[in-house]
Specification:
Blueprint: H1 20-34, E1 36-37, E2 40-44, H2 47-55, H3 60-70, E3 77-83, E4 95-101, E5 106-110, H4 118-128
Parallel strand pairs: 2-3
Antiparallel strand pairs: 1-2, 3-4, 4-5
Length: 130
């Protein structure tokens, strides 16, 4: 479920920036379409969960518990939207996408601005790679 409030509709106007609610809403729409490629399961991870992992999770045991509850081991492809924000109190200005082939522990980073969000992607990979 995604909670949408009137102020979120402003983000869909031309020239506006997307936020985590916009991305999460798009993910929920896509889930039914791409969540299962035959036997290759996909997980579209909520942007707030990704931010929590990147900005607050420091203990490997905590990540392992989170990975178990999210059933990451049952997925082949995990899509992680990454903001360039450096804390929960700042909003950031750019999103990129990290694609994780969980079974091979391989990562692919898609960034419309080249490598502008590469440091955020690398910090996340460091925390989640097996």
């Amino acid at each position: 479920d995604v909670d949408i409030y009137p102020q979120h509709f402003e983000f869909y106007e031309p020239g506006q920036w997307l936020d985590d609610v916009c991305i999460n809403l798009a993910y929920r729409f896509m889930e039914g379409e791409i969540a299962d490629f035959g036997s290759e399961k996909c997980l579209l991870l909520d942007p707030t969960v990704v931010s929590f992992i990147r900005l607050q999770l420091d203990d490997q045991d905590e990540f392992d518990d989170l990975a178990t509850s999210l059933r990451l081991g049952q997925c082949r492809w995990i899509f992680l939207p990454i903001s360039d924000s450096q804390s929960f109190s700042s909003s950031g200005s750019h999103w990129s996408l990290l694609i994780w082939n969980y079974s091979q522990n391989a990562f692919y980073h898609a960034d419309s601005c080249g490598s502008s969000n590469l440091s955020s992607a690398k910090s996340l990979v460091k925390k989640i790679s097996k």
